[in-house]
Amino acid sequence: MKKENCIVAQSGGPTAAINASLAGVIDGVRKSGSFTRIYGSLHGITGVLENNMMDMSLMALSHFPMLNTLELTPAMYLGSCRYKLPDYTEDPAPYKQIFERFEEYGISAFFYIGGNDSMDTVLKLSNYAKSIQSDVKIIGVPKTIDNDLFATDHTPGFGSAAKYVASTVLEIAHDAYIYKIPAVIIIEIMGRDAGWLTASSALARTTYSQAPDLIYLPEVAFSKEQFLADVKDKLTKQKTVIVAVSEGIHDADGNYISSDSAVADKFGHAQLSGAGKALEYLVRDEIGVKVRSIELNVLQRCAGHIASRTDITESFSLGQAAVKYAAEGKTGIMAAIERISNDPYQWVIKSADVADIANEAKSVPVEWINEAGNDVTDEMIDYLRPLIIGEVSLQYKDGLPVYLPVDHLLH
Predict the structure, then answer these.
(1) Hey, which of 35, 252, 346, 379 would disulfide with 340, CB 3.0 to 4.6 Å?
(2) Which residue in the list 120, 146, 213, 230 is annotated as catalytic?
(3) Does the annotation place 328 within a ligand binding site?
(4) Per-residue pLDDT band at 354 (split at 50, 70, 90)
(5) Where in the sequence is the active site (predicted)?
C-alpha cells in the first residue's frame, strides 16, 4: 500500500488541553494535503499493537464545529495507556508488530501526544525505524500538567491546570476567611518530582489575600520541624494559614512526606498519596488548631470549564506544527515552545530532538524558590502569569458544558 496516511495517539495522564493538540493534528492534516487519511489509535500505542483504531478522516473534513468542540473537551478523546516499550535490541517483537501495522494502513507518519514517558516511546520508535531504514516519521507533541519536559518553555496542559489551581486556592481562601478561630488549611497539589504546578498557586494572591501563605516544592528538602515553625510564625500574625504543598515533597534523605507508602508504577515512578493528610495530622498533634487538608487530585487536570485560552491556542498550534514537521521529512523530534518575552507575552514553535527530552524531568530553578524554601520569587510569578491568561467559550446544554462524546472508550 502506498504510504500516504498517518496515525495519531495520546498517552500518559490527561489534561484539559491535550485534545486541543489532537484537534491541531487533525486540522494540520486537513491543511497540509500530505496525507489521505488520518487514523486515531485508541489507548495510545497499544491501539496500534491491538489493531484498535478509528478513522478520523471525516473529522478532519468537517473542520467546524466538531474540531472546536474537540479542542475544548477535557481528558483524552482517544484514550490513554501506560505502556512501556522494551529495548528493541532485547525484544523486537512489539516493534515488528507496530511497523507491520504501519505498513498495513499505509502509514507515513505517527504522532504521539504525551509527556516524558510518551517521548520515550517516540524515541524508541524513531530509533527502531532508523535501524530498519523505515521512512515512517515519528513525531512527539508535548503535554503534561507537571510542566517538566525539557526543550520546551512550558508544556500544553500546564497553563490550564495552573489556572484551575490558582482559582481554587483563591476560592478556598474566601471560604476560610469567614471564621475568627485560628485555622490551618493544607492544599495538596500534583507534582511528583517538579513543583511547577504547586508554584502556580502563588497566582491566587490578590491585594487583600496573600494565600497561599506558604508554598513547599519537591525541589527543596522538606523539614517537618521547619514547617511547624513556619506555620506557628504565621499564626502569630494572622488567624488563618493556607499552605500549598506538592505531593512529592520529601525530606533530606529522599523519604516522601506521605501518610501512605509510595508504590512504584511500571515506569519506576512513585505513586504518592497523602502528603497533605500527613501534614494535617502533624499540625493537629503538634499545634492543636483547627486543620483541614484538601487534595485537588484529578480535578487539576480535567477542569475543561476553566481552561486557559493561551494554553488551548498553543496546544492546537503544536499539533499543527507536528504535521508540518512530518511533511517536511523530520522525525525523532518534538514540537516545542520557545518564549520570546513575558510582557508582552510572545512565543514561537520550534522542533527539538526527542533524545534530549525522553525520560528527563525539568525541575523548578532553585533561584525561583526563596531562601527559606517556603515560597516562590517574583521571577516565578512573571514566568507563570501569561500562561493562565484568557478564557474559553463553551457551549452549554441543560446547565452543563457540551463536550465531544467518548462512547467509543466505554466498551
Answers:
(1) 346
(2) 146
(3) no
(4) very high
(5) 146 (proton acceptor)
Our answer to whether residue 146 is catalytic in this structure is: yes
On the 0-12 / 13-18 / 19+ scale of CB atoms within 10 A, 27 is: buried
Residue 206 labeled ligand binder? no
pLDDT at 246 over 70: yes
Rounded Cα distance between 229 and 407, Å, is: 51
Confirm or deny that 38 is annotated as ligand binding: no
The answer to the question of whether 292 is labelled as a binding residue is no
pLDDT tens per residue across span 316-339: 999 999 999 999 999 999 999 999
Cell numbers at 208, concatenated: 487583600
Cross-strand partners of 295: 188
pLDDT beyond 90 at 258: no
| Rounded Cα–Cα distance for residues 166 and 310 (Å) | 16
Q: Find out whether 146 is annotated in a ligand binding site.
A: yes
- Measured N-to-C along each axis, helices 309-327 and 18-32 cross at an angle, to the nearest 10 degrees, of 40
Q: Delineate the domains of the chain, giving CATH numbers in brackets.
A: 5-156+304-360+391-409 (3.40.50.450), 158-302 (3.40.50.460)
For residues 242 and 216, give the distance between their C-alpha atoms in angstroms, rounded to a whole number.
12
13 is in an annotated binding site: yes
pLDDT band at 64 (very low <50, low <70, confident <90, very high): low
Show the beta-strand stretches assigned E in 343-410. 345-353, 396-397, 400-401
The secondary structure of the chain in percent helix, strand, coil, rounded to multiples of 5, reads 40, 20, 40
Q: List Cβ<8 Å contacts ≥24 apart for 372-376.
A: 372/230, 373/216, 373/220, 373/221, 373/226, 374/214, 374/215, 374/216, 374/226, 374/227, 374/230, 375/202, 375/214, 375/215, 376/199, 376/202, 376/215, 376/217
**d(C-alpha 347, C-alpha 367), whole Å:** 23
Q: pTM of the entire structure? A: 0.94
Specify whether the CB–CB gap between 188 and 296 falls below 8 A: yes
71 is in an annotated binding site: no
Give how far the C-alpha of residue 322 lies from the chain's centroid of Cα atoms, to the nearest Å: 18
User: What are 288's three cell numbers?
Assistant: 492543636
For residue 262, is pLDDT > 50? no
